[in-house]
Write a structure and sequence with these properties.
166 residues; alpha+beta; two-stranded antiparallel ribbon; flat
């Protein structure tokens, strides 16, 4: 099984079509991926008759342009490449797309699901999420996205509150 954890996607790629396939071509990819996994979520192992999501796995590459911005930073662009696919249920998909879950008010549900699948405490689950979403904060003094791990240029999702009493 694949390890379930939030993935950060640079904001410029949110809600953008990620593959050049036609609807019929995408249908074939979907059919192949569902057959490959036997209609099971690759993160939690649950089998579903319908409703599984084909999750795109990406690699991001920061490319430097031959230009210096007015603030002295190096002009860069981030390229996205589909490196594969994973089959996920809607619940694991909320964890994978933490920024989306947070934006639609489902962050606590995503935390609970992450705890269940990874056998974590709430504190461990929230720390993992915070570790993933605060990468940019650790490097906020840099003006060059080439200095960021993976060139991530992501927005931090809305804050969430702990449901534990600690």
């Amino acid at each position: 099984m694949k390890i379930l954890e939030p993935e950060l996607v640079p904001i410029q790629f949110w809600r953008r079509r990620s593959h050049p396939l036609t609807s019929s071509g995408w249908g074939e990819v979907r059919k192949q991926e569902l057959a490959r996994t036997g209609n099971k979520c690759e993160y939690c192992g649950t089998k579903y008759d319908k409703g599984l999501i084909i999750h795109h796995e990406y690699e991001f590459k920061v490319e430097q342009r031959d230009k210096i911005n007015s603030d002295g930073s190096i002009d860069t662009t981030i390229q996205r490449y589909v490196s594969g696919y994973a089959v996920s249920c809607k619940y694991c998909n909320l964890v994978l797309h933490w920024q989306f879950a947070s934006g639609i008010g489902r962050s606590n549900f995503a935390v609970q699901h992450l705890m269940k699948i990874r056998n974590m405490t709430e504190e461990q689950a929230r720390n993992l999420i915070l570790e993933k979403v605060t990468i940019k904060d650790k490097y906020k003094s840099t003006k060059n996205p080439l200095d960021l791990p993976g060139g991530l240029n992501c927005l931090r999702p809305k804050a969430f509150k702990s449901t534990s009493s600690s």
